[in-house]
Amino acid sequence: MEPTQSSRTNNSRPICDYENSTYRTDFWEGQGREYEDLAERIALRHLLPAQGQRLLDIGAGFGRLTDLYGGYEQVILLDYSRSQLAHARARLGDERFLYVAADIYRLPLATNAVDTTVMVRVLHHLVDVPLAFGQIRRATRPDGTFVLEFANKRHLKNIARYLLRRGVNPFDRAPYAFAELHYDYHPAWVAEALRDAGFAPDARRSVSLLRAGWLKRHVRARTLAAVDGALQRVTAPCTPAPSVFVRSRQHKAGEARLVDRAQLFRCPACGHEPLDAADAGLHCAGCGAHWPIEEGIYLFK
Ligand SMILES: C[S@@+](CC[C@H](N)C(=O)[O-])C[C@H]1O[C@@H](n2cnc3c(N)ncnc32)[C@H](O)[C@@H]1O
Ligand SMILES: [Zn+2]
Predict the structure, then answer these.
(1) I want to staple 100 with a disulfide (CB 3.0 to 4.6 A). Which of 47, 88, 167, 298 is the partner?
(2) pTM for the structure as a whole
């Protein structure tokens, strides 16, 4: 096991806060994004190991993608927004799902807590990608899998805009902040950040190439998504689409066994693990902190 890093737990970074946001209804439901939703599901279905013991979805929001996790014995939905998790719980219940309100920079999961980690539509909100990847690496067991989606800076439309002198340079590898706490990333920059964190990227899909208003108005979402699905792998080497999915294996020394359910959590304040069950919550023997569970949600904020 890697040592716990108590000295690095004071990891506060600015967060794009979705608390009480209407993300589900304002962004997805009836908002003309059925094609993107379907295309992302195709990518994830191909990259995700079909079965496993414990899957962690970071920045899971209201649990949009959870129906793809049917092959996992336990699923942890983690998000900074408690209200998003409450929506997820109302729909999914407690049988296979755990709900954790926490910050990715201070991930309250023990070393080797999960075999698969998924993070979709979250990287574009992160100011400190290396810190986030380091936390994911610790929580994912040796030989585990990390499936990441990110917003691609070097996609076809951005290249065209640049050639017409209307946009930023998509070939420059540095992340591009197009709004506060909103970033586009160059695929090579992300691959390098993954490798620096100890992941080995081994498969990629270029997703939502057909995202154009006029196409979406004239062609059924299911048809567009089917075409997208057929193109995702063959176009992956040059990533022309605005969204990229990348799967990495996690190579780190140590035993590949997952921690038991009773040892699942780590203190986000001091790094002590595991936490002990205590009255309506968890107790940290390292710093004495109490982390409550309220309405079925573990609260680590
Ligand atoms: C655009 S939504 C994506 C939700 C979901 N993954 C999906 O694809 O439908 C981004 C989510 O990331 C969460 N988030 C942003 N920063 C976070 C952080 N530092 N720690 C944990 N969650 C975070 C937000 O609360 C929000 O629910
Ligand atoms: Zn503690």
Answers:
(1) 298
(2) 0.94
